[in-house]
Amino acid sequence: MRSLLVLPLLVALVAGATLDFDHYWTAQEMNAYIDELVSEFPTLASAVNVGTSTEGRPIRAVRVSKNNVANRPLVIVEAGLRAREWISPMSANYILHEIVEHYYEFENILDNVNFLIVPLVNPDGYEFSRTTNRLWVKSRSVNGNGCFGIDLNRNFGHLWNTVGGSNDPCSDSFVGTAAFSAPETAALRNLIQSNSANLVLYLSIQSADQMVLYPFSHSATTNPSNVAELRNLANSVVRTLMSQNGRVFTSGGAGLLQTPASGSSIDFVAGTVQPDLVFTLETGAGGNYGYDVPEAQMGEILSETTYGFLTMAEYVANNK
Q1: Which GO terms describe its cellular component (predicted)?
Q2: Is 60 a residue whose pLDDT tops 60?
């Protein structure tokens, strides 16, 4: 595997012709980057319209498939579920930057694996966090009585609204009025289901607990049948992450290491689609709250997270 660039070299590297990774991009800039990639690398990358957010913003994905071969094992990467976790969508964009713009360094992976990467599932909340309220976590649905937004990672359909969420429309953990009541989660569900035949690995990138988690989120004691495989790969990813910048990462069941909560994206995928491998990667932390990583620290976390992702991708390439 090539050595990914880390600070200070990373910030000198541009993504495409117009964007760099030393500042947080707007939702519009992320869409512009997708357009650049598919224009410059048409035999490798194509744009997918996933859906439309509450406020009418596009939710987009990039399909990465060398020579457009359709029947390889598929990895889906989802990012930007929670508005204030800006490092999450930036990590997904940096992963795209590496495997598309530097495709020649990842021949073994790209010869054997296809990718579907959704950098920003929650564009409305992300933009609201950027412009109005840095602590905002939810979407921007109109709930009535002056309350807005759904916690998208509590709105997926597996055991929805059974533990860990709130029915208060003003709460940061509001689960919504029904499973998939948010257009953002409904769109992601449709994307997952329509690509389920070849799906082998599902990865949710979140921040910033410095963990590699596997299902289930709703329970500390319920595990998928292949929990040993999940545990072994999670431990490998943790070793990779810790070798980069010395941050301490842990691995384990999501409902054991975090407060149990139903309606997460990984529980939906593991509980219904049931691919072999499902994980959440909680990125490195920084700033005052963990998720508000300063731009000066962003580069090393993007590189670190990408190393973790590549450990998973190489496992799929060599074993699935």
Answers
A1: extracellular space
A2: yes
| The pTM of the whole model exceeds 0.90 | yes
Q: What CATH number is associated with residue 268?
A: 3.40.630.10
Residue with tokens 């329509």: 194
Number of alpha carbons in the 13 Å side-chain half-sphere of residue 112: 14
Domain extent, residue 195, equals 27-299+310-318
Which tokens sit at 112?
């054997």
pLDDT for the residue 9: 36
Q: Closest by alpha carbon to 126, among 181, 191, 58?
A: 58
Active site residues: 282
pLDDT given for residue 19 in this prediction: 78
Closest by CA to 293, choosing from 279, 307, 303, 278, is: 303
Give the residue ranges of DSSP H helices in the chain.
27-40, 87-96, 107-112, 123-131, 183-194, 227-245, 254-257, 265-268, 295-319
Per-residue pLDDT at 43: 95
Gap between the Cα atoms of 187 and 54, Å rounded:
11
